[in-house]
């Protein structure tokens, strides 16, 4: 296991720097390392380590969502709130149902199984999108209209819709008694419940930090440990635990601003190591042979889905003050897939669904196709399509 950790840290860091040297996102280098040394490549990673890889990815995801919550500006969030809510569901629904229709016609999948595929693919990857948006936020790109905040908030809820609807289609295939209507009605319960849980825990954390004289590292340990508890509670009671974690960080920022700023700086240092494990292990979960089996038809289904997502983004941004270039960037930034596809792409196959192997193949292909292109798109087009806050201030002076 020590050998696996060494390979992930050293090679992940090295490839990240190499990709940055050639003006590509470092995350791509890390994903490539995972593919190379993972079980479907050279198979250098310990099998015991791979068994806990999903838990390690979750830990890294918690760190980045805490960072996101601790960095959410209340005034900007108020300004973009309605748009972010629309972005959290409309693009996902457009993509999911368009893939469902396309897969049923082109791949001759039963409509229920096509629905499973649709909402596996429809989930945007917070593991890829959130770090990219935090970088834009720190650089000031798009912050005049809160674009990184819109995408941060929207992407954190997008997965709730996708996973719930996937579960509904899986339930229909397995004749589970719970009706589709009940499962869909549970979506707002998950979202609202997640926000309430995060609010309550955030308030408790604020009181703890105010009443106890703790060192910064002690506060960080409490914050991170509490985030883990929140995730477990969310899973147990059926609310969006990851959304709770972001909300918890946001509440802490509003009530204990000085503490929150210091904790965010500490989390930035943790993220340096966590991102390497996250993206290398995402790469390790990718079976390239399975992706190749999906073939051209699988790729067409994914592209059609992305067209549906783009249409959904444009619909969501109607009535906002974003111009055409900014709307185009939002569509690009909302395209990467990775986390959910790696996590649940194989579930239909394990569940004995007849087209499970096809669904898995297209899910893997979606990661290989959209994660690199999405990352390159964000890095390439952000400076071209978005404005910096200071640039706007200079023009108005």
Automatic annotation (TrEMBL):
Report TM segments.
24-42, 115-134, 146-172, 184-205, 240-258, 270-290, 296-319, 331-351, 357-378
- Report the principal subcellular site: membrane
For this UniProt record, give its keywords in alphabetical order, as a comma-separated list.
Membrane, Transmembrane, Transmembrane helix
Q: Does the keyword Membrane apply?
A: yes
Superkingdom is Bacteria
Residues annotated as domain Cation/H+ exchanger transmembrane: 9-375
| InterPro entries hit by this protein | Cation/H_exchanger_TM, CPA1_transporter, Na+/solute_symporter_sf
Extract the Pfam families matched here.
Na_H_Exchanger
- What are the subcellular locations of this protein? Membrane
Q: Which Gene3D superfamilies match?
A: 1.20.1530.20
Bilayer topology reads:
Multi-pass membrane protein
- Protein name (database record): Cation:proton antiporter
The taxonomic lineage of its organism, from the top, reads: Bacteria, Bacillati, Bacillota, Clostridia, Eubacteriales
């Amino acid at each position: 296991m020590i050998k696996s950790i060494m390979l992930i840290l050293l090679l992940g860091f090295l490839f990240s720097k190499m990709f940055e040297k050639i003006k590509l996102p470092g995350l791509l280098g890390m994903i490539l390392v995972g593919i190379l040394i993972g079980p479907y490549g050279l198979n250098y990673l310990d099998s015991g380590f791979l068994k806990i890889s999903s838990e390690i990815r979750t830990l890294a995801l918690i760190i980045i969502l805490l960072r996101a919550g601790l960095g959410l500006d209340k005034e900007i969030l108020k300004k973009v709130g309605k748009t972010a809510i629309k972005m959290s569901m409309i693009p996902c629904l457009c993509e999911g149902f368009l893939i469902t229709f396309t897969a049923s016609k082109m791949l001759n999948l039963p409509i229920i199984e096509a629905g499973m595929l649709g909402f596996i693919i429809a989930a945007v990857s917070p593991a890829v999108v959130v770090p990219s948006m935090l970088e834009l936020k720190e650089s000031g790109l798009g912050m005049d209209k809160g674009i990184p905040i819109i995408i941060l908030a929207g992407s954190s809820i997008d997965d709730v819709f996708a996973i719930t609807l996937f579960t509904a289609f899986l339930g229909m295939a397995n004749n589970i008694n719970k009706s589709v209507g009940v499962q869909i009605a549970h979506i707002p319960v998950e979202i609202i419940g997640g926000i309430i849980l995060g609010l309550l825990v955030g308030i408790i954390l604020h009181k703890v930090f105010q009443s106890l004289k703790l060192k910064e590292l002690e506060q960080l340990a409490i914050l991170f440990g509490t985030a883990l508890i929140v995730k477990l509670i969310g899973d147990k009671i059926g609310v969006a635990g990851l959304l709770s974690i972001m909300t918890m960080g946001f509440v802490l920022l509003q009530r204990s601003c000085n503490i929150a700023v210091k904790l965010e700086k500490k989390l930035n240092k943790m993220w340096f190591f966590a991102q390497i494990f996250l993206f290398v292990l995402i790469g390790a979960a990718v079976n390239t042979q399975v992706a190749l089996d999906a073939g051209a038809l699988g790729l067409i289904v994914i592209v059609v889905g992305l067209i549906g997502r783009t249409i959904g983004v444009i619909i969501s941004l109607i009535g906002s003050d974003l111009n055409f270039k900014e709307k185009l960037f939002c569509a690009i930034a909302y395209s990467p897939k990775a986390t959910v596809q790696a996590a649940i792409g194989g579930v239909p196959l394990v569940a004995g669904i007849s087209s499970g192997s096809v669904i898995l193949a297209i899910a893997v292909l979606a990661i290989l196709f959209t994660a690199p292109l999405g990352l390159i798109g964000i890095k390439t087009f952000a400076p071209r399509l978005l404005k910096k806050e200071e640039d706007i201030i200079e023009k108005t002076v």
